[in-house]
Amino acid sequence: MSVWGELLEKCRPVVADAAAFIKRELGTITAEQIEVKEANSLVSYVDKKAEVMLVEGLSKLLPEAGFITEEDVTEDNPSELTWVIDPLDGTTNFLHGIPFFCVSVALRRGKETLIGIVHEAVRDEVFTASIGEGSFLGKRKLQIKHGDLADALIATGFPYGSESYSDAYVAVLQQVMQQARGVRRLGSAALDLAFLAAGRFDGYYEYHLNAYDIAAGALLVTEAGGQVRGFYDADDWFDGRSLIAGPSETVAALQTIIEQCMPRL
Ligand code: LIP
Fold first, then answer.
1. How is 103-148 classified by DSSP, letter by letter?
2. Which pTM value belongs to this model?
3. Cα(135) to centroid of ligand 1, in Å?
4. What is the Å distance from ligand 1's center to 122 Cα?
């Protein structure tokens, strides 16, 4: 096992504690405790407290590493090694009592992702990957599923505040609905990517994402033999706010639809 595989093992209990805390709070949040960050992007003390737990725990494991986090409980300070954290991915699901959300943690060095953990908080499914050592659900090694778009179940998401491009985005969805077996919108990019790595989905695409929504999930997909890329630039998925993921043939098919229906804005 590499040093990153060993560090991944030490991260598990830190992530599990945050997931357990979030699960305990499910269904207890009052309307007064919900804050609106930007159009329909919600947050509560649960996201913030979970992020504090993660930052404190991970800082002890790797004091020299910086952070990129969703809730900014700590100043974003990307460094040579950087933790990329979404303490509660699927916040809207959580606040509506929909049991589909997770903790997502990745470690990056420059443009490389070394570790990824996506901990689904309700059923305690733990998806993990370390660079060069594969992806796992629990102890089960994951392998991306190959196949035609016609037989594919595709996951996607509908971004907040999409007025400027919603017609083009709906045109993409219409083509995917016509050409694929089915489409699912479950509300957590990190879990969409984890389910893709586990062969539950056959492809995923979304626009207007944040790096912390996808950093860990993307490594789960690539370490399971899949591909990730931006809508318009292959390498621009981390900062480019758009992502296509899946087996190479499905990524190519989705990219063709996106180029036809949603040319670069
Ligand atoms: C969510 C993503 C989801 C996307 C939502 C939101 P959050 O992240 O996981 O895929 O469609 O717009 O960005 O806000 O729950 O951390």
1. EEEEEEETTEEEEEEEEETTTTEEEEEETTS-EEETTEEP-PPP--
2. 0.97
3. 22
4. 17
